[in-house]
Structure formats: C-alpha cells, structure tokens
Amino acid sequence: MRLKITLFPQTVPTVIPVNYNHLVYAEIGDKIKRHSDAFKGDRRLKNLGIFKERFRIYTFSFLRFKNFLIENDEVKLTNPDEFNFFISSPFSSFIEGLALAFLRDGNFRVGDANFVVKSVAKIEPPKFADEMKLRLLSPIAVVKSKGKREIFMTPDETGYFDKIKEDLIRKYNFLYAEKIKSVDFEMQFDKEYIDLRGGKFSKLIKFGRMNVKCFLAPFIIKTDPKLIEVGYEWGFGHKNHFGFGMAVVSEHDIKEQ
Questions:
Q1: Does residue 249 sit in the same domain as residue 169?
Q2: Whole-angstrom Cα distance, residue 92 to residue 26?
Q3: Where does the CRISPR associated protein Cas6 C-terminal domain lie (predicted)?
C-alpha cells in the first residue's frame, strides 16, 4: 500500500539540508510515537517492534520539490509551491496508521523546517508482470558484509544484482507462508539513460554517520511478478526504511487517482 503526501512550506524561504533522509526517517518515527493508538489494531506491527523503533518494513521517496536551489549543501525553497513524497509498505495497517497521523497533525517537520499537509492520498498499485520497466523515486543501495563491516556495492561488481534478487526472495518468504527458494531473475539499469548522463548515476547520501553509496536510474526487471510486487511495496535493495529503493512504473501511477 502506498501514500502520496502533498505538502507546502509554512514559510518562505525555507531551507533544509541536502542530506535530509535521516530527518524524514526521524519525523516518521516521531509520528508513530505520538499516534501509537493508530497502529495498535494490528498485533503484527507490535511484534515487529513498531513501538520500539525496530519496524523496517517500509520505504519512502525523495521529497519531490518543484522549484528549488541547492547552495552550500542546502535545499532552498523560495516559492510557496506544493510538493509531494511517498511512503510504501506491504503492511496496509501501517500505511493507514501513518495516514491518520499525518491528517491529525496537519504538518511535517524536516529538521527546523515545517511543512503543512495539504492532502494524503492512497495510490492504487499497478498490475505486475514478469517483465517491467521501473524508475526510482529514491536510489537503490546494496550492501555486502565484510567481517563486521557493511560495504555498499556498485552495479559493476560481481553479485550486485544477485544481492537484490536474494533480498527480494528473503522479503517475500518473510511476508508470506508460500516460500520461494529459487527463481529466474534478470535486472539491469537503463544504459541509454546512464549514457545520456555521461555514465554518472551514483549518489552519496549521508545518513547520520553513515555514507550511503547508491544509484538512481530506471531499470528493467524480469522475474516472478510476486517478487516485483514485494520490491514495489517494501523497496528494492537494502536500507529501505532509511528512504532507499522506492520504485514506480510511470509518472501516471503516482498522480492523484
């Protein structure tokens, strides 16, 4: 289930850090704490640690500003334009609880900046097929372990897309009684898109003390539609709850219904 949240700045100009993922994550967590009653109807959420800041089965997009300037590692909004972002999870009760929290508060804070909630809308999912082209609303991060360290992989490394496949299977098996052990899988980033940008499609996003090496480009995926649906709802790759790996089929699918 997916929400489209439309906001506008309470005052202009408004400034937020370029690296704001940790602030959005913190604000979502704060809404869960202050509106805990909105999530108590589903015991699974409690068992998964939603009230102990351990719930990780969701993802969110970049803040989709219309007009902005980037100066000195800050995003500056000089017009009172509305903008939107998205939150997605396979747990509809979690999304419904967040929708209620947003509507109750009527605002959304990103660090020192405050935004007014204009609307909260449910987005209907697309039809899933065994081959789809998706584009990213937040970049994909893929992690491998090296001892006790986590290292962020790049798409040219052997095993990069295997990690995404393994993660989708793990997520599916966690969510559903039916288990997938192996499945045909093929995924690649859009080469034409990357070439048009001179081969540059990587990003480095600071999340607290962590530097996340991630990648933002459309991609084609061929596999079981059930795995694509899990990626759509929970996120592709790793660190989804920190705002990574949210995908969409097309712009049409995220407009107001």
A1: yes
A2: 21
A3: 124-247
